[in-house]
């Protein structure tokens, strides 16, 4: 007999997956200096940050309710130590891994002002590992997501994340290497094309 | 204290110009032009928020020297 | 003393050298004949380290009396301060302040670097100095290292080290003259390679690209250690101040800007010469006043109109009236038959491609400025171009991590002022030049890949 905690854990997990997908997409949007229609630039950065904190809240409830639920025994420790639960060891383990990666990102982002820029960025790149692992955890540990409209939802999240990641990789591949940037701008300078063009970085 | 940008870190996101228009405008290529004077005390909190909001971590407060 | 760059074999015998050097006059830095270590030590005496046994002996009462008569005091840094020596690499920063900053910085590891990478294609003085008087530079490096407490010493050069410098180091090693071994690092042929932070990056194994300051390299430089970076010529002067004292140094030059400096002079007949001159020498003693215009301070320098500037002297006080400064001593007299606009456009194009491309304003501004200047140097230009030039010049000044955009704008703005008549002529489709031969040197190789910066 599933308890209320059990359903709450499933529900908050699904919301967390949606939020994390949005956070990933927004993160790529920030990097690409993209805009959300009708909103100022700082809305993109603020939304990325605020939704990431909101997803932490949902994940906290997701874990707490899973631990409190008596239907299966899930020790609290298994939320951060991978593969420490008896129940669904693999899939919950992936959840723990994803959470650990997220914790590193959140902590370093909260301390951004005091950290070396390069260090912060390196850790923030863990996002590209954290999301797929979280997604695998979601699909693997929840029968709900493997059928019906929740499956459609899961596929939509995967598609959005994949699109964002492909966009990011393509931009990196297209990026003009530093040594070629000045030449790129010089070659744009013909009298006809003396418009404002900034080489993006 | 003066608001300074690290021009190597700056990639021209332009968030600073939105959050602190009193001190920051964008040039025709999208890079910040910052008022060289000291940050007025009334804008101190806004300046700190702007520094925290820069996606490239390119802003800092520096002591006025030289 | 003049050294024509094609003629390195002046065959005067260096007799009475020590007495001549101790006298106030010139030459101070450039010997008639390249000197080996033995000749160098005979002329100048041993390296006057303050902390060594020799130094202690020198601090006996009689020696102290002689030292005080020369105006020397207890420490080298104090002597350098009293001498008024400023950097000869272009920025003219007071040397004692850099020495003091590194000496006082926290850290057990400290680094001293002799910057022989003059980077400016038109400057040849450091190359000559290192070829015919390397021991002065190396003396200065060791003395400066001692003064700041450096634990490592480096020499930074544009080309692979020539036989002269290698022989000089070998001779010194054989005599155990140098407390610190000197590591040689090669700089890439980039305009910015000699910039302090770019130098530190290169010494650390990375590309010669500038980084943002603060922190200054004197606080956190190579490997995070406080780093002293001094131009090669500056160290040569320092080596002589250590021997002859501040009063000797101040015997030439002006009161506010004492001492002598090396200049690279480009004459209208295409002869290039290196002169050691007192600071404050009249420019018309070095450059003909009937040239079309003068360029003072190299490619980050200033074009000066003639005859208005013909009475200026080679010091900051005089040149600042025209917004100019001596820089690293590159002086050029543009022949009357050339197009000053074309010359300026060619050099600005070079400066643009030599941008590190790291800072948005410089990366976007300099190529546009260069293209606009090239348009002015062509036949007819759009009305918008001059306004664009002025706007872009204002936009890049002070907005880079180094002063490359500022120096370039100074060069461009002065050209736009001095060559106004030529601009108007070109606007109408004419040009007053009768020769298209380029005058000032621009290297052929443009930086294309990341490897060109290493």
Quaternary status of these chains? heterotrimer
In terms of structural class, how would the helical and strand content of chain A be classed? mainly alpha
Mean of residue pLDDT values of chain B:
94
**Distance between the amino and carboxyl termini of chain B:** 13 Å
Broad shape of chain B: globular
In the sheet with the most strands of chain B, the strands line up as 1-4
Termini separation of chain A: 56 Å
Q: How many domains, in number, for the residues of chain B?
A: 1
- Within the CATH hierarchy, at the fold level, what is the topology of chain B? Alpha-Beta Plaits
> How many β strands of chain A by DSSP?
0
Please give the domain count of chain A: 1
Task: List low-confidence stretches of chain B.
Answer: none
Tell me how many strands of chain B there are: 4
Q: Beta-strand level of the residues of chain B, as a percent range?
A: 15-25%
Nutshell version of this structure?
The complex is a heterotrimer of chains A (201), B (66) and C (454). By secondary structure, chain A is an all-alpha fold.
Description of the structure:
The complex is a heterotrimer of chains A (201), B (66) and C (454). By secondary structure, chain A is mainly α. Chain A has one domain (4-193). Helices cover 69% and strands 0% of the residues of chain A. Chain A has 7 helices and no strands. Chain A has helices at 4-31, 41-68, 89-110, 117-124, 127-141, 148-174, 178-188. Chain B has one domain (2-62): Alpha-Beta Plaits (2-Layer Sandwich). Chain B is of the alpha+beta class. Chain B has helices at 15-19, 44-53; strands at 2-5, 24-26, 32-34, 59-62. A two-stranded antiparallel ribbon of chain B has the order 1-4. In chain B, strands 2-3 form a two-stranded antiparallel sheet. The mean pLDDT of chain B is 94. In chain B, strand 2 (24-26) and strand 3 form a beta hairpin. With 454 residues, chain C is of the alpha/beta class. Chain C has helices spanning 17-22, 37-44, 53-58, 61-69, 76-83, 95-104, 125-132, 134-148, 163-174, 196-203, 232-249, 316-319, 340-353, 360-376, 383-396, 404-418, 420-427, and strands at 2-4, 111-115, 152-157, 182-186, 227-231, 260-266, 272-278, 293-296, 302-305, 330-334. In chain C, the strands form 2 sheets. Chain C has a 6-stranded mixed β-sheet. The chains are: A mainly alpha (201), B alpha+beta (66), C alpha/beta (454). Chains in contact: A-B, A-C, B-C. At the A-C interface, helix 7 of A face helix 14 of C.
């Amino acid at each position: 007999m599933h308890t209320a905690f059990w359903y709450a854990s499933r529900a908050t997990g699904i919301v967390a997956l949606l939020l994390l997908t949005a956070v990933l997409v927004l993160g790529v949007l920030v990097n690409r200096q993209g805009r959300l229609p009708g909103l100022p630039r700082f809305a993109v950065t603020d939304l990325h940050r605020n939704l990431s904190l909101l997803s932490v809240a949902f994940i906290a409830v997701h874990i707490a309710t899973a631990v409190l639920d008596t239907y299966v025994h899930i020790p609290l420790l298994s939320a951060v130590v991978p593969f420490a639960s008896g129940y669904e060891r693999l899939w919950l383990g992936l959840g723990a891994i994803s959470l650990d990666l997220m914790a590193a990102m959140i902590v370093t982002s909260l301390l951004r002002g005091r950290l070396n820029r390069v260090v912060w960025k390196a850790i923030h790149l863990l996002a590209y590992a954290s999301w797929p692992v979280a997604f695998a955890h979601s699909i693997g540990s929840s029968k709900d997501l493997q059928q019906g409209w929740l499956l459609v939802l899961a596929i939509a999240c995967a598609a959005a994340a994949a699109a964002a990641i492909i966009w990011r990789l393509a931009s990196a591949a297209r990026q003009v290497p530093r040594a070629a940037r000045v030449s790129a701008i010089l070659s744009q300078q013909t009298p006809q094309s003396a418009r404002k063009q900034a080489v993006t970085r | 204290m003066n608001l300074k940008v690290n021009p190597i870190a700056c990639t021209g996101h332009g968030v600073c110009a939105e959050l602190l228009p009193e001190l920051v405008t964008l040039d025709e290529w999208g890079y910040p032009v910052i008022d060289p004077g000291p940050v007025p005390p009334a804008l101190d909190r806004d300046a700190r928020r702007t520094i925290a909001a820069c996606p490239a971590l390119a802003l800092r407060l520096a002591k006025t020297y030289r | 003393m003049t050294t024509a760059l094609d003629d390195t074999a002046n065959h005067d015998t260096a007799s009475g050298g020590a007495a001549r050097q101790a006298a106030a006059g010139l030459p101070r830095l450039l010997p008639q004949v390249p000197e080996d270590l033995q000749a160098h030590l005979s002329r100048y005496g041993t390296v006057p380290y303050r902390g060594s046994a020799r130094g202690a002996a020198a601090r006996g009462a009689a020696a102290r009396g002689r030292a005080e008569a020369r105006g020397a005091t207890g420490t080298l840094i104090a002597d350098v301060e009293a001498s008024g020596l400023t950097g000869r690499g272009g920025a003219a920063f007071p040397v004692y302040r850099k020495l003091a900053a590194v000496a006082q910085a926290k850290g057990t590891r400290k680094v001293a670097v002799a910057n022989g990478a003059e980077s400016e294609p038109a400057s040849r003085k450091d190359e000559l100095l290192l070829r015919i008087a390397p021991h002065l530079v190396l003396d200065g490096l060791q003395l400066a290292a001692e003064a700041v407490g450096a634990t490592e010493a480096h020499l930074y050069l544009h080309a692979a080290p020539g036989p002269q410098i290698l022989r000089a180091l070998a001779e010194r090693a054989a005599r155990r003259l140098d407390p610190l071994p000197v590591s040689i690092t090669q700089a890439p042929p980039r305009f910015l390679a000699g910039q302090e932070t770019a130098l530190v990056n290169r010494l650390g194994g990375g590309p010669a690209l500038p980084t943002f300051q603060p922190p200054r390299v004197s606080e956190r430089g190579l490997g995070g250690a406080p780093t002293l970076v001094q131009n090669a010529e500056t160290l040569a002067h320092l080596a002589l101040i250590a021997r002859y004292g501040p009063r000797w140094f101040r015997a030439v030059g002006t009161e506010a800007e004492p001492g002598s400096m090396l200049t690279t002079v480009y004459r209208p007949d295409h002869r290039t010469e290196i002169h050691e001159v007192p600071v404050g020498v009249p420019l018309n003693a070095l450059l003909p006043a009937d040239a079309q215009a003068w360029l003072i301070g190299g490619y980050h320098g200033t074009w000066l109109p003639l005859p208005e500037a013909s009475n200026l002297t080679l010091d900051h006080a005089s040149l600042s009236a025209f917004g100019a400064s001596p820089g690293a001593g590159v002086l050029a007299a543009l022949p009357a038959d050339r197009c000053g606009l074309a010359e300026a456009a060619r050099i600005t194009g070079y400066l643009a491609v030599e941008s590190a491309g790291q800072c948005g304003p410089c990366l976007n501004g300099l190529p546009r400025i260069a293209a606009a200047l090239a348009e002015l140097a062509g036949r007819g230009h759009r009305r918008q171009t001059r306004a664009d030039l002025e706007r872009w010049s204002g936009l890049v000044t002070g907005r880079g991590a180094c002063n490359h955009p500022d120096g370039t704008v100074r060069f461009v703005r002065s050209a736009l002022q001095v060559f106004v008549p030529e601009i108007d002529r070109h606007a109408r489709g004419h040009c007053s030049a009768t020769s298209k031969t380029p005058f000032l040197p621009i290297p052929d190789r443009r930086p294309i890949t990341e490897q060109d910066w290493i």
